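stuck on this fold:
=====
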Amino acid sequence: MRLLRTLVLIVFSFIVSVSLSAQDLEQLLETLPNQEAFWTLTVLDESGNKLENFNSDKLIIPASNQKLYTLAAVLDRLGSDFKYTTNIYGDGELIDSTWQGDLIIRGSGDPSISGFLYNDDRYFVFKSYLEQLKEVGIAKIDGNLVGDERYFDSEVYPTGWDWYDLSFYYGVEIAPLSFNNNAVDIIVTADGEVGDRPRVESFPTSWPVEISEEYPVDVFERPTINLINNQEIVEPSKKYDEYYRRGLGSDRIVLASKLPQGYIEKESLSILYAGSFFLESFDAFLKNNGMKFQDYLSSHELIGIDLLGQNNFELETGLEYSEYELLASHSSKPLTELVKWANKESDNFYTEMMLKTLAAEEQGIPGTFENGIKEVRNFLAEQGLDTNLVKMNDGSGLAMGNYTTTGNISKLLYSMKSHEGWNVFYDSFPIAGIDGSIAHRFKGTELYNNIRAKTGYVSGVRTLSGYMTTRSGKQIVFSLATNHFAGKVRPVDNSHQQILQYLYEKY
């Protein structure tokens, strides 16, 4: 009888403990600021069972947590060893060190033709091309640079991207030929007197960028990127007030920020016509590094696909590359490295480029955002997610109209633990207090180095999903979202830290 009473007491204590724990979470949420917001949390144990379930099946805007869906699907379908290969072909012949004919650069959708993965050497790939052209004996080119953009369709922005975002590095064009993340980098230095214009430097430095205080007369001709410097140096005691705008359909970027005296601002601003930007940047690089052209003002041609899937350029587009000579080639780092960059840095450009690549590789036709999303959704269904509760307008989470649930996100995170690409996927997450988008969070707390999680932010939305090693040494899966909050992000981040500390201690 005593044993029976003991067992009953243990069971009763367990039930009460679970009840109090659930009550504790709700009480914690009720004490947090931003009570106007919608909160949802899902936590899974090491066997995939739900430990916490607060609004888990309610739709939320995921922001950049959407990248988890896209990057997992890309890893699954393409494999971690996948590499982009961008070739330069010659249509002509070499005569006395002069290439008589065109050079054709076949776009492959490589997002990494920049310095991010090459020790900040943004000309790394161009340097390789130049050396290879020299190795085959080319010192002069009597022809044009031709860009083949048929690997993707001509839609450069996903559905739902806001026009305001299109001025900045996180809202750039998505194109099969892309250089420097399709952005011009600027450094603005307020080293003058109060009331003066600050000094502006730009990259690419070898590419024509015009810095002026007026709009050019010709609105349509595009010989340069025009940075309209209407900025002002203000008193050192004042705050930095940012203003950058690129006009829709224009490469005229208005700079109208107010910078405190002595302030230095670095920014990357989007450009128009990514394929042309690639060709013009490559052209300028070749000429500034000793490659001669028969006509210094050599022209550029683009081969592309219109929105109906048709070739939309007059240039002969029935290219059979077996008929041309391979003159230079570059293969990217493996997908392992690209996924890691995209996840840790929350890079929209890399993610959308890989989304279109997924569509092109799986379907054998020019990649589209729509077909890429279909491939992602097919993968999610295979992982057991309820895709009726997954709405995707893009791959990165910047678009309006994206919806999912923390229940679905946590289910994917748990499913990936048994996936062959698990190690690559797990290693791609930012580490609390150490790197990526949470490098500056959780320092000086028990959560430091015990959380690997993907952040998400758009206006009124903050999300965080990933893996936690708790105080007891167990690894749990969590997905946490706050939607429709008013005010700044920091109070929400502080609330997320309190919730995660609660989970760390409890489990």
About this structure: The chain has two domains: 23-80+335-506, 85-331. Residues 1-22, 217-223, 312-317 have pLDDT under 50 and may be disordered. The first strand starts at residue 38 and ends at 44. The CA atoms of residues 74 and 144 lie 35 Å apart.
